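Hello Y.,

Per our agreement to keep a running log of every chain we model this quarter, I'm adding this entry. I've kept the format consistent with earlier entries: sequence first, then predicted structure.
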Amino acid sequence: MMSKIGFLGPPGTFTEEAAHDYSPAATLESFPSIYSVATAVSSGIVKFGVVPIENSLEGSVTFTLDVLISHEQIFIYDELVAGIEHCMMVKPGTRSENVQVIYSHPQALGQCREFLERSFPAAQLEASLSTAAAVLDMINSGYGAASIGSARCAELNKVEILERNIQDNSTNMTRFVVLAAKDHEPTGDDKTSLCFSFEDDRPGLLYKAMGEFANRGINLAKVESRPTKRSLGSYIFLIDLHGHREDSDVKEALDMIRPETSMIRIFGSYPRWIG
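Predicted structure for the entry above:
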């Protein structure tokens, strides 16, 4: 039976392209938000869900991190990385000097910040749920409007492309994760993502936790924090490390830091993307 993959839609998003690249033969189903993709995975509507988690220009996609923290029934099964080329598109006949408002996903707006400030300094920037939804927002707008998204999105919606490759960096890359009801079995070249927090705010807690990985030669690929949303100054720490949660050294390190934490959640272990 062919796997069904959910993605952040509507059709025409970069996430749809990533989902197709991940499994060209799979049946793809669009969902309106990262949260709804995760819910579709946890409820069994789809087997996998593809969502963006990190961009080389704008950093982490906080919506995805928050969903991973709160959804204990879903895990990261795999990852993939894709180049992102943004286009400025308009309704047919719209000239660049008539553009008053520009729609796109907040990540896309951020990735094109220099272009927008240089070429459309007076335009109002409006956030949309996705780059594909931004085109629909533009089409339905009564103003001189434009949107930022993929060339395929412009083709699907029969709108004109004013400019191509408007991202601020030609090496603009986005990392996507594949969500599933369980993570991946060990492959020998894996990555593990997790989060944890502390009940107390005492000197050396984070240092000690990091030391458990360093003492075992475990490379930390990424370390960042997110607010717990319980109180100001209270944080959840998120880590990507090289290795699988079932590897003896990784298991040992996690066992050592677990008693020091008030919460620890393994998002999943999965094959490390090597391009």
